[in-house]
Design goal:
The complex is a heterodimer of chains A (about 450) and B (about 160).
Chain A lengths: L16 E7 L4 E7 L11 E4 L7 E6 L15 E8 L7 E10 L3 E6 L9 E2 L1 E2 L10 E8 L4 E13 L2 E11 L11 H6 L8 H4 L3 E5 L8 H5 L9 E4 L8 E2 L21 E6 L9 E8 L15 E3 L12 E5 L2 E8 L6 E3 L25 E8 L5 E8 L2 H5 L10 E3 L6 E4 L7 E6 L11 E3 L1
Parallel strand pairs in A: 3-17, 6-13, 7-12, 20-25, 21-24
Antiparallel strand pairs in A: 1-2, 2-3, 4-5, 4-17, 5-6, 5-11, 7-13, 8-11, 9-10, 10-11, 10-14, 11-12, 14-15, 16-17, 16-26, 18-27, 19-20, 19-22, 21-25, 22-23, 26-27
Chain B lengths: L12 H13 L13 H8 L2 E2 L3 E2 L5 E6 L5 E6 L5 E8 L5 H5 L3 H11 L8 E6 L2 E8 L2 E8 L14
Antiparallel strand pairs in B: 1-3, 2-3, 3-4, 4-5, 5-8, 6-7, 7-8
Classes of the chains: A mainly beta (about 450), B alpha+beta (about 160).
């Protein structure tokens, strides 16, 4: 599903120019609009894919982030708009833009301030003697590699495109000042001392997690077994401010993949984003498609390959595949719309970027755009090649753009991880299965 | 941490007192850069199963602890019995403060600096002083490793630490 012809009008064009390029057998097109805009740079460059269309599709934007009169420094973050309603109500609803579209997590998480006008039913937990869980309100401390979000679970109706998920357990991220529920010490530790409890720290109004599994935790949380790390779910018996205890929570009450709750088109997703010029764009528009092989607009094309991640939880590479590039083998590889760059380890590429920080791996800053090819090997031996580019991060950040296909950072010397972040998605249609849903073959995989 | 001064060469009484106090003050946990005997503390803390040490190379012994949920922790030990690296694959975000021992403060400082930039992270490479940490997550599969640069034996490839 790649466009062979990706001509782009030069960003410096003085007059407005429009270029329409048809590709992919007529089921998608790229429109590039370039204007003289705001004093140069690429901020006025808009690149879009306007297909597939249909009731199982909606728009994705990669832009500067939630409009609020200040810059959040967003780059390569894909956003969608969702509508959330009080369960059972057709009118008690809010429409929320700039929700982070994330294939690297599962579940809908919304800042509390975005749903303040709704009356959402809190999710409560029964007492569980085996795990020592007291009856109480369910709260979650959902961590990232750095940071975490904290807040209660609630039941909500979700509408996106023509799809609906009723009484979906979602997380309400506590962004009240001061916070409505004091996070436990274990959660503050899990967050590396800093919770993402605001639109500015999250760079979004919420997260729509559509990764390749159905639950954000599963069996371990249903047992309340948090031996391998920080506690995910808590039961809080009292009102706000009372102590909370680690909880066993039945799977049905856990935060879970909204797509799996749709009546149809519930077995996976497709993300289609346009190819970009080397210096990026001020706005990239693409399509989010629900369902795989369920409609005429979501069939896997003949030329695509399916890549399974390792489905065995006992293996060190659980939920990863392998990438080989530049002589290095990365056994912890994955595709993630929620990472804003490619991350790998290539000592031959200069890292002396002004925009890097001292204590972390930093961006790559080659003098010219590098074109590379990697080999991807899935958990069962399927292989394919993937072209990628590495641009100078300083040069990209010096533009007014926010969508960059060549943004790449160092995963660190000796890295085992190759992160195929959002740059991977530009110029592709990326399929993400949902393991356990009606889909053949069933399992956790990407196809592209 | 059953090893006590009693099993060691007979020290002066004052030294015994100091050693006893320091053992009592520290929780039983692995110390990156510490003695191989500290691995037992991790096994207790994580309620895991400890496997016999594997000879990974002439310079590296690998001690593994596996957990009921499929998670595992590997600790890499020099022939001299020093833990120079740890690696993890866990279902929950691992408590690195416990795994890094005395180097937890370096990790916390580097993480704090990295978190000044907004946004979520799925991969981080953090360096502070002698410590290097690689941390990655995809869904509920957390993988990563940490090592002390000055203690990695000559000729051990960093990408083999996993």
């Amino acid at each position: 599903m790649r466009c062979a012809d990706r001509r782009i009008v030069a960003p410096a064009a003085a007059a407005l120019a429009v270029l329409l390029t048809s590709c992919g057998g007529g089921n998608s097109s790229v429109t590039t609009i370039t204007g003289s805009g705001n004093g140069g740079g690429n901020g006025a460059t808009v690149v879009s894919v306007d297909a597939p269309i249909g009731p199982n599709t909606t728009e994705i934007v990669v832009d500067a982030g939630p409009a609020s009169g200040f810059s959040l420094g967003a780059a390569n973050i894909p956003y969608v708009t969702v509508t959330v309603c009080t369960p059972g109500s057709a009118t008690d609803c809010v429409t929320i833009d700039h929700v982070f579209l994330d294939t690297g997590s599962v579940g809908l998480r919304l800042l509390k301030s975005t749903v303040a006008t709704l009356v959402l039913a809190p999710i409560t937990l029964p007492a569980d003697a085996a795990s020592g869980t007291p009856a109480g309100r369910a709260l979650e401390c959902y961590p990232f590699v750095l940071g975490a979000v904290w807040g209660p679970l609630a039941s909500a109706d979700l509408r996106i495109a023509g799809e609906a998920a009723s009484s979906l357990p979602v997380q309400i991220i506590d962004d009240a000042v001061p916070m409505s529920d004091a996070p436990p010490a274990n959660c503050i530790a899990a967050a590396n001392g800093g919770l993402q409890n605001s639109m500015s720290s999250l760079q979004a109004k919420g997260i729509l997690g559509i990764g390749m599994v159905s639950y954000d935790c599963g069996l371990a949380c249903s047992k309340g077994d948090y031996a391998s790390g920080y506690t995910l779910y808590y039961s809080c018996p009292g009102a706000s401010g009372a102590p909370c205890s680690p909880a066993a929570i039945p799977s049905a009450l856990q935060v879970q993949n909204p797509v799996a709750h749709f009546a149809v088109n519930n077995n996976g997703t497709i993300i289609t984003l346009p190819a970009l010029p080397d210096l990026g764009a001020g706005l990239a528009k693409g399509r989010l498609v629900f369902g795989i092989g369920t409609q005429s607009n979501n069939q896997i094309p003949l030329g695509a390959t399916m890549y399974f991640v390792d489905p065995n939880p006992a293996n060190p590479g659980y939920l990863y595949f392998t990438t080989t590039s530049g002589g290095a083998t990365y056994v912890d590889s994955y595709v993630d719309s929620g990472s804003n760059a490619l991350f790998f380890d290539d000592a031959s590429v200069p890292k002396a970027c002004q925009s890097s920080t001292a204590s972390s791996g930093g961006w790559y800053c080659p003098p010219v755009v590098l074109r590379r090819t990697a080999t991807v090997t899935d958990a069962f031996g399927a292989t394919g090649s993937v072209d990628y580019s590495v641009a100078n991060a300083d040069a990209l950040f010096s533009t007014s753009g926010v969508a960059f296909a060549g943004l790449a950072g160092s995963a660190g010397q000796g890295a085992n991880a190759y992160v195929w972040g959002l740059p991977f998605f530009y110029g592709r249609s990326v399929f993400t299965s949902i393991w356990g849903q009606a889909l053949s073959p069933n399992g956790p995989w990407n196809a592209f | 941490m059953t090893s006590t001064a009693a099993s060691r060469p007979r020290p002066f009484a004052a030294t015994v007192l100091v050693a006893t106090l320091s053992l009592a003050a520290l929780p039983a946990r692995a110390v990156l850069g510490g003695d191989v005997s500290t691995i037992a503390g991790d096994q207790v803390r994580m309620q895991g199963t400890r496997h016999p040490a594997a000879v990974s190379s002439a310079q590296v012994r690998t001690h593994e602890i596996t957990l009921a949920d499929g998670s595992s922790i590997r600790e890499f030990v020099t022939p001299g019995g020093i833990v120079f690296a740890v690696a993890w694959n866990t279902r929950f975000k691992p408590d690195l403060a416990a795994l890094l021992g005395a180097h937890a403060a370096s990790y916390a400082a580097a993480a704090s600096e990295a978190m000044r930039a907004p946004g979520i992270r799925r991969h981080a490479e953090l360096r502070r002083d002698d410590l290097v940490v690689h941390s990655t997550a995809h869904l509920n599969s957390y993988v990563g490793k940490a090592w002390l640069q000055s203690l990695v034996p000559q000729g051990v490839p960093l990408d083999a630490l996993r």
